[in-house]
Amino acid sequence: MYISYECTQWYTNKEQELFQYDRPPKKIPTVLPKPEFMPTRLLRISDLKLVEGSQVHEGYCALSYSRDQSGDRLLDEVTGKPKRRIDEGKHRIIRKRRRVKEFYGTNDDDELDNEKDLEIKHVKFEGLIQQICLQFNIKYVWYDQMCINQATLTAPSRLSLNSVFEKR
Question: Can you give the pTM of this predicted structure?
Fold first, then answer.
């Protein structure tokens, strides 16, 4: 399964009127406060590199998601059961193209409904996470697929994963 993320976001006011904005509201902090618990590894959003949690001096966001959303499911040829996932970079980031009229401040109620008015970029799941985090000013994120060495995961380690979400 692949995800399409439209960068243009919508919100409603007190009167339930629908409005559009290209950036999140100004109330998003520039730095998230550092929590008491820091995971061993975090994903730095600017370059998608893993960094030691002990070296990060600000907060992070934890991502909870279904692995069904991160690519194609490969089935075991013998059992027919899901074996693993492969991400072929089919997630889509969709942006509205900026038109000359908008750039110069003129607007004539034309709708942007057709494909030529949209810029579509195909990315892997990590690229999708990067876009969302950049748009909402999140500099570090924790998610299991990148931040946990799955080969060395033991039962007690799984229990300690709760602390990633509980201490937030």
Answer: 0.69
